[in-house]
């Protein structure tokens, strides 16, 4: 049992005031457990990566469907190609490959989004790597409406990278042994 800070007599553990002298007793305030929810910025970046994942899946499906339709119609296209006989074979190889690469990127973006959302120590590295790669891939090579979309994604990626490089955000992703 604790003792009163004023008169020194024993007081009950849960007493807020001493029953003998009426002095207020100090109540220990236990620190609250740290929040397990990620900061809002990480949640937004995770959602952005999940949206990019969905776009990659859609692009992959479109390219695979286009490749299948091109393969189905190859016999009717071959005579019309004239001086470009190798073009059809190249397209039949390249278009499905682009579709499969899109599915691979979708998987990577989905894993990175999970890593950030759940504040895994590998999530920061994976997300930052994908954002840098996405920024480089979206550098416009010619003026067009599609290039403008690429510039928008570039700006979003750079803003995400700046946020992820903040010291307090990076500390969240340090393994427990290095803190």
Structure, described:
The chain is an all-alpha fold and 179 residues long. The chain has one domain (40-174). It is built from six helices and no strands. It has helices at 40-72, 74-77, 85-117, 121-137, 145-164, 167-172. Helix 3 (85-117) packs antiparallel against helix 4 (121-137) and helix 4 packs antiparallel against helix 5. The radius of gyration is 30 Å and the shape is rod-shaped. The mean pLDDT is 81.
Fraction of residues in β-strands: under 5%
Any idea how many domains? 1
Structural class: mainly alpha
Kindly report the average pLDDT value.
Answer: 81
Count of helical segments? 6
Shape: rod-shaped
SSE arrangement, N to C:
HHHHHH
Residues in helix, %: 55-70%
């Amino acid at each position: 049992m604790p003792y009163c800070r004023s008169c020194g007599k024993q007081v009950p553990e849960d007493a807020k005031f001493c029953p003998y002298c009426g002095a207020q007793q100090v109540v220990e305030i236990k620190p609250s457990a740290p929040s397990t929810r990620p900061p809002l910025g990480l949640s937004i970046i995770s959602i952005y990566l999940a949206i990019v994942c969905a776009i990659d899946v859609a692009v992959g499906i479109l390219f695979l469907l286009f490749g299948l339709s091109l393969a189905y119609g190859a016999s009717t296209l071959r005579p019309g190609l004239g001086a470009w006989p190798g073009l059809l074979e190249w397209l039949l190889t390249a278009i499905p490959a682009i579709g499969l690469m899109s599915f691979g990127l979708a998987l990577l973006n989905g894993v990175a989004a999970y890593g950030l959302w759940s504040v895994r120590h590998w999530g920061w590295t994976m997300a930052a790597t994908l954002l840098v790669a996405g920024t480089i891939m979206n550098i416009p090579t010619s003026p067009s409406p599609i290039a403008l979309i690429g510039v928008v994604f570039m700006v979003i990626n750079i803003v995400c990278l700046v946020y992820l490089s903040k010291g307090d955000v990076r500390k969240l992703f340090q393994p427990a042994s290095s803190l």
